[in-house]
Request: fold
Amino acid sequence: MKKLFVDTNIVIDLLSHREPFYDESARLFSLADQKVIELNISSLTIANTSYTLLRQASAKKAKEVLRKLRLIVNVLPLDDKIIGLALNDDTFSDFEDGLQYFTAIENDQDMLITRNLKDFKASKLPVMTARQFLKTLK
Reply:
C-alpha cells in the first residue's frame, strides 16, 4: 500500500470545503478511508488545521472535525531531529515546507501530495498534486 504524506493545504482543502480543490481532496481521503492508500500527516498539520478551523467554527466543532480526521490518517511526529534538519537545510526557503518534507523523509513516505509543487522542487520524494495522483490510479 502506498504511503502518501499529505501537505497541510490538502487537509484544509478537504475540511474547509475549499473550492475548486475540495472534490480531489475528498476522493483522496475516501481512498484512505477504504484502505486503498495510507495517508500520513505531520503533527504540525493538526496544529495548523486547527488554527484555520477555529476561524470558521467553534473550538468544540474544530476538535470534532480533527477527531474524525485522525480516524483516516496517521499523524507523524515532529521531533528534534526533523526540526534540526529543516533549520540546517537551505533547500526550502519556507521553514514550514522544510518541516513537512523532512517529516515525510524521516518516516519513509513514498510520495508527497501538495498543491504547491514549486515549494518542493528539490524533493527527493516524488511530489504530486491530489489530482495528479488520482489520475495515476485510473
Q: What stands out?
A: The mean pLDDT is 95.
